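Supplementary Data S3. Sequence and structure tokens for construct A.
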Amino acid sequence: MSVVTITKDNFNNEVLQSDKPVLLDFWATWCGPCRMLSPIVDQVADERTDVKVGKVNVDEQPELAAKFGVMSIPTLLVFKNGKLVNQSVGSRPKAGVLALLDV
């Protein structure tokens, strides 16, 4: 499944109303650790059809970053049934990203 670009306009529909768990990657183009994490997030999107994966560009969507208190990037948030159930700040290996989904 491909990565969905999440904006304040589609957040409710794509994340809160999703019938699958959602992994959100808060990132920015100028962020080195974000560029290291991005291919891992893409792999998870390709391999885990049971999970929806979205990316939030914090420069383009500051309201969403503020709503969830994202102060450092990359930040990963996991939602299940419309509720935030897990989060992580900083780059991590693929196993660490997958572990976030096992809540």
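Construct B, processed identically:
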Amino acid sequence: MKNLIRLTCIGLALAIVANTGTAWAQKKAPKRAITKIAGDLYRFQNNFHFSVFYVTDEGVLVTDPINSGAAKWLKAEIKKRFNKPIKYLVYSHDHQDHSSGGEDSPA
């Protein structure tokens, strides 16, 4: 009986620790940044994912919207920094971590 109680307590403690770690990870704000590469070409970072965008006189070409939050943030930043419309959205490939922001497409 003592072993059963010990195992139950250990199991509960592990569940609490695992749950706390998950909750902390969900609350942590994503790391987002825009870095100039060269000329009018910029790199956009969302945590460990990167995409690029190119600013022209006619508007902005954006690649890989990453996810909904990243797409909304990037759209607002482009408007604030460049005041140009987003004219084109290019997907490099169909993996979810590159394209799931398409529903909130910057364009």
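The first helix runs from residue 2 to 27. The helical segments are 2-27, 68-82, 96-99.
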